[in-house]
Amino acid sequence: MRGPLLAAAGGAMGGAGGPLARTIHAKLTAALQPTHLEIRNDSPRHGGPPGAETHFGVLVVSGRFAGLPLLQRHRLVHEALRAELAGPLHALQVIARTPQQWESDPHAPPAPPCLGGSKR
Amino acid sequence: MRAAVRSGWRIGAAAAALRGRAGRPLSQAAGEGGGAEGGGGSGSREAVERLVREHPVVVFMKGSPAQPLCGFSNAVVQILRLHGVEDYRAHDVLQDPDLRQGIKNYSNWPTIPQVYLNGEFVGGCDILLQMHQNGDLVEELKKLGIRSALLDAEKDQEKK
Asked: Which of A71, A101, A107 is best to mutate for the B interface (most B CBs within 10 A)?
């Protein structure tokens, strides 16, 4: 993921990130026991003022996702952040991989916005 | 006028102008007779159910395919366009707060955009993007009888 990253699983946050970022980290850690976790505050990219915490992206690597289709994986993430999504968290991008998937491709795909010009 | 409005976003600006004069959100005009009150409005389960079954490909987004008002909604529009899917139903939730909440209740999904294939919720922009990247979207479209334009693009490549 591009942009400032906040802590991986097992690391100390060290004060990085605002309160919502820390909450997201704590709740996803508790709910999914991720082996790898990246949280990105996209609020500035969406016109947010300094310190805004409204748009986030999360990359979650967890064995809990094994055997689950994408929709169910995303639902697990949403469930962990239900209160936040009903409140200040306005948008949430989610990448949810199993440890095996992450090992074979330890890169997050580029963020969506401009699809113009991309060839496949 | 109702027929023109129901034919969806293909008409683009003309449809938007018609909707403006009619004074009702597209989502209401499309599914119900004039003044139908039963079922409790455009955000009710029944109303949403009608919308998601209206067409094989239905998108709830911010703005319109001609003019998306959000990067994630735009991403969905662009992905569908890449696959040559231009004929689909798009509903602008910014025009209808009841629908905006109703669609989230219906799918138990907290965000917009939302993509429905054959009446079934498939996911948002992230999932659609991953389906596009891993080839699943081509397969899902095929099940709906829609041939992705990317298949033809590949064929052209092979001919050269």
From this structure: A71
Q: B116: which 2 tokens? A: 């429905």
pLDDT tens digits in sequence order for chain B, 160 residues long: 444 444 444 444 444 444 444 444 444 444 343 334 345 699 999 999 999 999 999 999 999 999 999 999 999 999 999 999 999 999 999 999 999 999 999 999 999 999 999 999 999 999 999 999 999 999 999 999 999 999 987 777 776 6
Inter-chain contact B110–A115, Cβ cutoff 8 Å?
no
Q: Alpha carbon B37 to chain centroid distance?
A: 24
Cross-strand pairs, A38: A59
- Whole-angstrom CA distances from B58 to A99, B16, B46, B77 are 33, 18, 16, 11
B105 touches chain A (CB under 8 A): no
User: What are the structure tokens assigned to B100, written together?
Assistant: 């905006």
Q: Which of residues 71-100 of A touch B (CB under 8 A)?
A: 71, 74-75, 78, 82, 85-86, 91-95
Q: How far is B127 from chain A (nearest CA, A)?
A: 7
Establish whether this prediction's ipTM goes over 0.90.
Answer: no
For A49, list phi and psi in degrees, rounded to 5: -70, 165
Domains and CATH numbers, chain B: 45-158 (3.40.30.10)
Which residues from chain B sit within 8 angstroms of residue A97, using beta carbons?
none
| Fold designation for A35-104 | GMP Synthetase; Chain A, domain 3 (3.30.300)
